[in-house]
Amino acid sequence: MTARRRAAVIAIAAAAGAATFAGDVLVVSSGGVLMPAPLLALLAGVVAALTVGRRKVTPLALLLLAGAITGSLGVLVGEDPWRGAVALERARGGLIAARFSSDARRLLGATTHDEVALWDVTTGAITTQFRGPGLETRALEISPDGDLVIAGTFDGLVLFDATEGERVAVFSQLHRTFAGFDSLGRIIAYGHNRTVVDPGGRCIVSAQPVPDSRYYMAMAFRDGVHAGLDFSRRRVVVVEGATERRLATRRLEDDVDLLSVSPGGQFVVLRERAEGWVRLLDIATGEVRPTALRRRTDQPLEVVPDGSRAVSVVDGVLLVEATGSGERLARAPLRRARGRLVTISSDGRMIIVETPGESLVVPLDRILAAGQPLHRRPMVWFQVGLAAALAAALASAPRRVAQATGTP
Predict the structure, then answer these.
(1) Over the stretch 289-318, which tens digit does the pLDDT of each residue have?
(2) What DSSP string describes 13-46?
(3) Per the confidence metrics, is the pTM higher than 0.90?
(4) Where are the chain's structural domains?
(5) In this structure, are residues 176 and 140 in contact, taking their beta carbons and an 8 Å threshold?
(6) Which CATH number fits domain 255-372: 3.40.50.300, 3.30.450.20, 2.130.10.10, 2.40.10.270?
(7) Class of domain 93-209 as given by CATH
(8) Distances (CA, A) of 232 to 239, 275, 302
(9) What pLDDT digit, counting tens, does each position of 332-387 carry?
């Protein structure tokens, strides 16, 4: 085949891919990497052009051409689940913790470089940056009215103005404490004492020993609900931050990790350390609800407000699953090979996914609408075509050598 004909085959394959799959469709390669369909069609055209015979199109070349094009076109029933995602403006380092504001319009996040920033969720732009020595993620919250931010530092608990980014108060005695806001806008810090801070007066209102004289090794805050796991790893206490009213106390048979409080404050998400089974503590009844899901310690998991669905990132794939049956409702391979789920908004409609070099705000309904369109099975045809081409080249090599040397 002449160079002009090869170029024509490549152009036809690229045009076919672009025309057929213009829109929200991506292809998953055999390595799990997302590629635009036109690009993969172009690669298929290159392979086909290089394997078609010089003087005539052989049946084997046609098989390769069909396999290559089928492999490049056959993944594509559905939408690109990442189309509605908003990329956050990069701060120094990747996100290690994040919290949505109560109206889900802003995101407060801490990075691996000890920086804290506030983002506009709609545009992804940084609106405020907060800098301080040794910022920690034990305490990272935005007030219900959105005016103040608290962050844990090696200096203590620091109160920032959310608009200007300036420090307005430092509580050095609240060093390395868990802290969050209650529904009244007060700061509640948990260490050896339960300390109430009035952010308006910038002063400590009260400091009382933690109930039962227990020191929490892990805590989770959301929508005014505070959940703590004590050092036995088998006792979970849930209180209403504003009133100190105990909402639930549960002693478990197995050691657990405290993962999160669900949006709306209805469930506490737990993970058994031995087997990895995820459990939901119903705050209203105090009962522990089993799920069909298992996760490792490096696989954060969040649930929607009613506890019916769970969202997580497992081995580079974002999964939405039914907590009761374990059924996969949607799956979407990440744009990059690795990543993790950071948090979910209080209305359960948006999630934050962190991947190398990129932090994304993802509408959960977009993931559910896309369903499960991306899979690897059709790529088998492409691989079969390549294997057939290699076999044909090996089989014809002796004949071509004989023709070139003139030997029978």
Answers:
(1) 999 999 988 889 999 999 999 999 998 889
(2) HHHHHHHHS-SS-EEE-TTS-EEEHHHHHHHHHH
(3) no
(4) 3-78+375-405, 93-209, 255-372
(5) no
(6) 2.130.10.10
(7) mainly beta
(8) 18, 18, 24
(9) 888 776 888 889 998 889 999 998 888 999 999 888 887 654 443 444 444 555 55
